[in-house]
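Homework help thread (please don't just give me the answer)

Our assignment gives two proteins as sequence + structure token strings and asks us to describe the second one. The first is just a warm-up. Here they are:
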Amino acid sequence: MKLKSLMLGVASTLAFSSAAFAERGSDGNVSIIYWQAPSILNPYLSGGTKDIESASLVIEPLARYNETGAMVPYLAESVPTVENGGVSSDLQSITWTLKQGIMWSDGSPVTSADVKFTADYCMDPNGGCAQLEAFDNISSIETPDDRTIVVRFSMPMPNPYGPFVGGTSPIIQKAQFENCKGAAAPNCTEQNFGPIGTGPFVVTEFRPNDVIQMKANDNYRDASKPAFATLTFKGGGDALGAGRSVLETGEFDYAWNLQLAPDVIAKMEEAGKGVAIAGFGPLVERLEMNLTDPSPALDADTRSTRKAPHPFLTDMNVRKALSMAIDRPLLVEIGYGKAGKVTCDLVPAPDLYAAKNDFCMSQDIAGANALLDEAGWKRGGDGVRAKDGVRLSILYQTSTNAVRQDFQALIKEWWAQIGVETELRNLNASVFFGGDPGSPDTFQKFYADVEMYANTFNGTDPQAYLSAYRCGNEPKPESQWPGSNINRFCEPAYDAMLDELAQTGDLAKRGEIGIKLNDMLTKDSYTIVPLVHRGRVSAHAKSLGGVVLNTWDSELWNASDWYRIK
């Protein structure tokens, strides 16, 4: 594969021109295309990347991660540490100080009350917050003055940077959202579609699953930024069309997530309109095994909840056999080339937390068949295995994308070779990742046996990411279905190890615990079946300067620095 300007692990960027940022709004319009269209601009009600990243243009956290994974202050004056006195010596509190003079886009001041409200909003037990794991172990939040926030924890927290850090945990305005807590949260359409923020842009129009129009924030803290007066954020279509719109036609300035075969991207680059950029973070394409029963014969309060165990995926032998049948090197070759690596791990990076398991590197059809034979799953006359009247018949769903459909077709064939019947379903990505509590087709509801998607985490510490699989974090009807424990995994030993990680300060020991948690989800249980460690591949027009690809936070993290090369 040849991607021009490709630097794995380090984003490519164009040099800043001397005229950059001479005046806010001097460079006209910038256009962005995400082929997965945003359906909401509130990350607390959606775990979808397209929702989190589009919202990051408007609402911001106290601190976030830069392109190297280092934490940098945004709304806060500095990043609190033990050394600077911001984190207590007993590791049970962290004190943040807001920058002086930060304003919301409506001209009102940002205060510590907004930060505290953000935590209260997410931690409301009836709200179904999609980012709840970031607020683990908070016992109280104090606001001694308008700029100071003291977060206290119920136990020592060597990594106290879960709340208010990264694109998944931004600050929302109390005045706008105060009537939207708990069960009311999903019904606050005006707030969820047009949050008042501190970011470089302000929403002027939001059409869910279609387009967002924005304008420069007149109250943005840097008077010379953003360089663009307006921003168009188009959603929908497919990765091929998005890539062409930047690399071939020049219709758009930035295209996200070019999940395309490497030769396709290289061919599009030859048109000379734009460049592809790539970098490896912790992004993993995986299969999630549903541990609950998704049968439509069950009522909504039972379907895909722990009230009803899955009829055959609760057998680890079945989950393991499904994994053994997959030829991961072939998936990487046809889907990603040099922008992908075979992985058996949910957390393949950074190195401190990477188990570097190799148990899944080679396909083993014969071994998978032997395992199912031994477990009592016998082939019927139609070649499909069954046991106690239960057939191994799988509904396997994912989002609509050429690479994912190629993966589905191959995996269906491999599973047929071990006596498993597979029905394939692909869903519009904007719906699949949308989080609409009224839709039966979201990845959170998981009305299928197996589903495939990619996920990652902000920063270089996976504690909050691994905490997603804590008992109680599953999507469920009583909390309007948001939640991050997608396969409904629940293991007390896992939760106890999460608590140990939360209280461990030594980095080497944290790495050891993180690897054990990874293994409990993958090689020890096959609840999650990793497939490909994916590099992020996006593209920008040659006329768009200031782009720095970030694989550790929102990809649009520095949109305030973008400008038009003249």
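The one we have to describe:
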Amino acid sequence: MTNLPIINRELSWLSFNERVLQEAESPDVPVLERLKFLGIYSNNLDEFFRVRIATIKRMILFDKRAKQELGFAPSKIFDLIQDKLKTLQKRYTKAYENLIKELEKENIFILNETQLDKEQGEFVKNYFQESVRLEIFPIMLDKAKQFPTLQDSSIYLATRFSKKNKDVHYALIEVPTTSISRFLVLPPKKNKQYILFLDDVIRYNLKDIFQIYDFDKIEAYTIKFTRDAELDVDNDVSLTFLEAMEKSLKKRKSASALRFVYDAKMPKDFQNYLINKMGLDNKVQLFSGARYHNFKDFIKFPTLGKTDLLYPDQKHVPHPDLIKTRSILDKMKSKDILLYFPYHSFDYFLDLLREAAIDPNVSHIRITLYRVASNSHVIKSLITALHNGKDVTVFIELRARFDEEANIDWATILREEGARVIPGITGLKVHSKVCLITRREKGHKIYYACMGTGNLHEKTARTYTDTMLLTANQSITKEARQIFSFFDKNYSVPKMSKLLIAPFTLRSKLIHLINREIKHAKNGKKAEIFLKLNNLVDEEMILKLYNASNAGVKIRLIIRGICSLVPGLAGISENIEAISIVDKFLEHTRIFVFHNSGDEEVFIGSADLMTRNLDYRIEVVAPIMDEKIRKQLISIMELQWQDNVKARIFDEIQSNTFKIANGEKRIRSQDAVCEFWKEFARKKKK
């Protein structure tokens, strides 16, 4: 399989982040939204280093063997990554400089501490004393027995101060961005508005911080540290799964160093002092950066009331089947319902949970949680159900990357409230998005299920596009019940005829569905496959799609992120086309459409076509049984395929070329999908 034309996943991921950067560069995107895209790019890149670069570096230790196993030399890929990163960093810097100029045209000015006038200086000093001072805890490096463990989500001011012919002192200050906004809005003057980084608030007050020292020179430079974020969960049988996770998280905080970023203006002797003090070796990448790091904070840049510099707020489209509904459970019993976020409100799902929590006939709520909001109304609804005497079973995945600590806390809270909490399954991550409600009706157990493509997270439901199926179809819901039975008895593999479950039936069923299209094509029938995914990486699935293309099956792919498949190659993938849509909402839906000689089969679910999703996670992909909903999803897929504003074309060289209208009507698919749901609501209202 390694001789297949395959784009390396790391390089394809960088190509995805380049599409994010394109949004930050685009003059068609409102200025403050472009700043957010800079923040998203930066946040993505941090995670890339913490996870993917860490993995590549481990592979390099076994370079020759890895090449035999994987078909590529990790060291060569690492060099290609570095070249791409250098190119993107230049574009990123230029995009930031251009945005500063754009902000100034709008009378918004980002100042540093040397540019403050007397009045602004007094304001900053007062702010520091009232809001910042007590959050500052300097560590004197020249006195410390060992260098402190730097957190890779934080930024620090490396500070040096001295007096002529006297000792030089070194200190480290963590910039407290977890408790204080990174940006201070200064009082406006005339029509001008001013913003100061928190870093510079601290710089402006350095003399006060170190007032017990006698010095005549003080300087401070921002530094940042990145560590390996992969978890090695301890298999000590004496530990519970939760205890093992907590132990592994502590190890992550002192894991191997990967990257040290410092202000390029930091003097060389100061750099060397820090590198030596930290004991960094030549395995750690050193990056000379700009004055400010952690640009992920631009995601929360102050809006200053400038709504014209932002995308308009997404107003939720009322779902006609749920407007003024007395009981969502009753409505689900009468028909299947599709929710499509963020066009529909996530409140519908919260209302369903609230209803189940107080319905006297509901006996049990079962749910899988991967990521939830920090102030989760999903969790609150489950606790309400417990207070009302319901049985609540929660599978909460403790290994959800970078949400591990939050999930441990939620697991503890739910357990203390009386929920039955299942914290993990050895060897399998539970990534499925399933909620199952059991209701007693006329002496029988009736199951109601919600199955979706996204996390049960009310915050991301406002910015991610995701679908959720609400159904009381017992042929599906009883199979959903089997999933929760498997969580109890891991040796009892669920037997499914409707649901596609990884790692048991999903891969084989998808191969069967592709083979069926191949058979139709060979018999001269129309044969098509239309997939919408976040990532397409698995080599077996790519080979199967190449085989389908060679058999004459028309294949269309909408892939937001990584796409290792190469479309449009003569004799290999000439019947495959692929695009990526990056716009104001993060495209997160996973939809599978198989033409089936005109009797289309449509599925939605939590799985991407990655080996980890197909073989090492519990994923649930549900068939759409309702014909109207099938047609809705196919119509939406067609609208997205027609996008000629925000769609990029996948090709062999990963050029990220935009699909251009060329005189045709401009179609921006996210706006078109919103209009689609509005029209659906209007028609139902008549």
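TA reply:
I won't write it for you, but here's a hint about the kind of observation we're looking for: The two ends are 55 Å apart (CA to CA).
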